[in-house]
Amino acid sequence: MNALFRLKQPVDRLLETTLVGLFFVLFACVIIQVFTRYVLNDPSIFTEETSRLAIIWLSLLGTAYACGRLEHMAYTMFPEKLKDGALLTHMRTVALVVLFFAVTVMCYGGGRLVLRALQFNQRSATLALPMGYIYLCIPISGLLIVFYQLLILKKPQQFRAADEVEVALEHIADEERKLASGEEN
Q1: Which region among 97-111, 131-145, 151-165 has the lowest average model confidence (pLDDT)?
Q2: Fewer CB within 10 Å: N-end or C-end of the chain?
C-alpha cells in the first residue's frame, strides 16, 4: 500500500498536466471557432466536436482529480462537526460508497460501453473517431477514483480538503517573510 502513496504525487501531476492540456484544447477550439465564424465567415466544422470531446474528458478526469483532493464533497457542515475517530469513520464510509460506484458504474459499466462501441465500430460524426476511445475516459476516471479511494481508506488522516482561504493566508505569510528577510521572488 505504501507503493500507492508513492504514486500519488506523480499521478496528481500527470492529471494536472492533462487537465491543463485539455483546457487549452477547449480554449483553442473556441478561439478558432469564433475567428472562423466571425472573421472568415466560414465556421470551422471540427472545433465543435473537438471542444465537446475535450469537455467530456475534462469533466470526468477533473472529477477523479477532485476525488483525490477531497474536493468532490459539496457538503461541509456534517464533517466539520465530527472529530478524530468519528471523522475518520465518516471519511472511510464515504470512500467506500464512492469506491463502490467507481468500480461498478465507471470501471465495469464504462468498460463494457467501450468494448461495445469498439465492437460495433461506432464513430463520431465529424472527426470519425472511434467512440470507444472517447468513452475510454469513463473507465480511466473510474480507475483513478478507485486509486484515490483506496488511499483514503488506508490513511484518511493524510487527506484534508483544501481550504482556499487558508492556502491564500499561508501564501501571504510566506511573501511577508520573504520581504522581511530581504529574499527576492
Answers
A1: 151-165
A2: C
